[in-house]
Write a structure and sequence with these properties.
Chain lengths: 194, 186
């Protein structure tokens, strides 16, 4: 899976977006194919639940299709798309809270792809596994603003400037949220890092 | 420069987002400050761990099936008029699912409250509920006193028919006295 700039031919995105704006739905289909896994991944981490990922992703792409004629190209297409995804997830979680719909946090996530196993040292593997679970739980417990910047920076590898565009906030706000989020994570996970 | 000020720069430094002047200041400070160096190492270790912990695939969804679904929805959106919410936007699909979940799930009192409210609306809007408001003077039923005088019984019956009420129903509802509106002196 490619993130952020690696997806980059932003030039090809520009061509596809221009064709979409002229009503070429095949061009939009190309953009859906290109970005769907990224959007799934982003939604999964923002909502910390696999249950509504597909529905929410569909909503994101539909909103993008509706709004693409108004996309001026001030930012890259993917930061604009991520902005739609972040807002969609935010609205979804607000809706859940308002209607008291609480879903269990995904406490048994799929194993990371590059799990650091030591065949000669199963204890170490177990400790690492437990650490990853604890990290996952701690990130889930962060306030949504902090969790969002952590996900956009450490998973999506967006620059601070891109994160500011996605969130619609000044770059200083991105810096301070990241600093506070990481400080909170460090304090909560200190025991595991010793 | 204080350690707390320097430590606030560490995240940006790790992310390679610190300007050249701040980077120089920070590096000078780190050479002389073991506690900030330790803080930097802890942040780096944590970041590596949580990147790996979070590097998980989302629930796998078939790429072509999802794309087909989106494109079908896009074509529908183009071609059809969708039912809109109060703000005039198409309700996202998860809201339908979630709304149903709220009714069918653990919060049954929500459904009960809404049902009760719906009944209350019916009762309030029921024309039988406020007979006085529905009564009109006889003069509106007939144009002249003579016409009124000519067929008094018919007038009453006509009035009741207009309001889709039988005498029996009117009596039952306690409106008999209200019928004095339609009574007249000959």
């Amino acid at each position: 899976m490619l993130w952020g700039k690696e997806l980059g031919s932003t030039e090809s995105d520009k061509v596809l977006v221009e064709r979409c704006r002229k009503g070429d739905s095949a061009a939009f289909e190309m953009l859906v194919l290109k970005y769907q896994q990224n959007i799934f991944h982003l939604i999964y981490h923002l909502t910390n639940s696999g249950e509504h990922v597909e529905d929410l992703a569909q909503d994101v792409f539909l909103k993008a299709f509706k709004a693409i004629k108004g996309f001026r190209g001030d930012s890259c297409f993917y930061t604009w798309l991520y902005r739609i995804a972040v807002n969609t997830c935010r609205n979804f979680m607000k809706f859940q809270r308002k209607h008291h719909i609480y879903e269990p946090i995904d406490d048994n996530p799929p194993e990371p792809d590059d799990m650091h196993y030591h065949p000669q040292d199963p204890v170490h593997s177990l400790e690492t596994k437990e650490l990853f679970r604890e990290i996952d739980r701690t990130i889930s417990s962060l306030n949504p603003e902090y969790r969002t910047v952590i996900i956009l920076r450490d998973i999506k590898e967006l620059s601070y400037d891109e994160i500011a565009q996605v969130l619609g906030c000044p770059i200083g706000t991105v810096r301070s949220r990241l600093f506070r989020a990481r400080t909170e994570l460090k304090n909560k996970l200190k025991a595991y890092l010793v | 420069m204080s350690c707390s000020r320097m430590q606030s720069l560490l995240c940006s430094f790790i992310d390679d987002e610190l300007g050249p002047r701040d980077t120089e200041t920070l590096l000078l400070h780190l050479r002389a400050c073991p506690s900030c160096r330790e803080e930097l190492e802890e942040l780096r270790t944590l970041q590596q761990f949580h990147k790996r912990a979070l590097a998980r695939k989302a629930t796998p969804v078939s790429s072509s099936a999802f794309t087909k679904k989106v494109m079908a929805a896009v074509q529908r959106q183009d071609a059809e008029t969708h039912p809109a919410d109060a703000a005039g936007e198409v309700l996202p699909s998860w809201r339908w699912h979630a709304a149903w979940g709220a009714f069918a799930g653990g919060r049954r009192w929500i459904a009960a409250s809404i049902a009760a409210a719906a009944v209350a609306v019916v009762v309030v809007l029921n024309p039988f509920s406020s007979p006085e408001q529905n009564l009109r003077p006889v003069s509106e039923l007939k144009t002249t006193a003579a016409e009124v005088a000519a067929e008094p019984d018919d007038i009453i019956e006509h009035y009741l028919t207009e309001h889709a009420t039988s005498v029996a129903e009117a009596r039952l509802a306690g409106w008999v006295d209200s019928l004095q509106f339609v009574s007249y002196s000959k």
